[in-house]
Amino acid sequence: MNSNERRLDHSQAEQRYREYRKIAHEVTQEEFPETQIAGVTYNDALEADRWKSLASSGARSTRADWYWSKEYPHYLNRPNRFELTVKRGGVLCAICLGQLSKNGTNVRMNLIESTPVRPSPLQMRALPIISFAASVFADIVGANELWVIDPKPALENLYKEEGFGSREVYHGPRVGQRRIL
C-alpha cells in the first residue's frame, strides 16, 4: 500500500469512527439529559490540566499523573479512538481518552479523570456516564469487553461498583480492570 492509499484509508477510517463516536455521544446525551456530552478538544485538555493547580479545601487531593494537553495529539492520530467530555452547565466535569484494541474486541479507557472540585456538578456520576458512553461505543464497533487501563489501586472498588472486575494483567506490564459486555 503506497502513502496515498494509506492516507485515504486513514481518512475513511477517521470518518467512519467519527460517526460512531457521534452516535455514542448522542445516545449518552439522551440517557443523561442534564449533561452536555461531546468529544475532546484541545481547550478541554488544557482545562483538565488546570485541575492540577486547583487548591481548595473541598477539592480532591489526587490528580492524574499525565497532562491531557500532551496526550491529546497522540489520540488524534488514532481513528479508532474513544473520546468523551462530560459537562454540566458548561463546566467540564469529566474527560476520557481511549481506543479500540487492534483486534477490535476491547474498548480501552486509557485516561479518565473527573473534576477534583467537591461537590462535583455530577455528584458521583462521572464514571457511570463515561462507562455508559464507552459501552455504547463498544456495542457500535462490535467490541465485547470494556477495560480501564492502569487504574489507581485506590480506585479499584469504585470501578468494581460500576461492574468491572478486579485488577488483572492486560498486556505486558500494563494492568486493567475488565467488564465483559
Radius of gyration: 16 Å
Would you identify the CATH architecture?
3-Layer(aba) Sandwich
Look at the structure and give the mean pLDDT: 93
Spatial gap, N to C terminus: 35 Å
What's the assembly state of these chains?
Answer: single chain
Main sheet: strand order:
1-2-3-4-5-7-6
Number of helices: 5
* SS-based class: alpha+beta
Order of helices and strands: HEHHEEEHEHEE
> Based on DSSP secondary structure assignment, what is the total number of beta strands?
7
- Rough outline: globular
Under CATH, the homologous superfamily reads: Gcn5-related N-acetyltransferase (GNAT)
Plain-language structure description:
This protein is of the alpha+beta class. The protein has a single domain, classed as Aminopeptidase. It contains five helices and seven strands; from the N terminus they run H-E-H-H-E-E-E-H-E-H-E-E. It has helices spanning 3-31, 42-50, 68-76, 126-141, 156-161, and strands spanning 36-38, 81-88, 91-100, 106-114, 145-149, 168-171, 174-180. The protein has a seven-stranded mixed beta sheet with strand order 1-2-3-4-5-7-6, sandwiched between helices. Strand 2 (81-88) and strand 3 (91-100) form a beta hairpin. Helix 1 crosses helix 4 and helix 2 runs antiparallel to helix 3 (68-76). The radius of gyration is 16 Å and the shape is globular. The N and C termini lie far apart (35 Å). The model has no long low-confidence stretch (mean pLDDT 93).
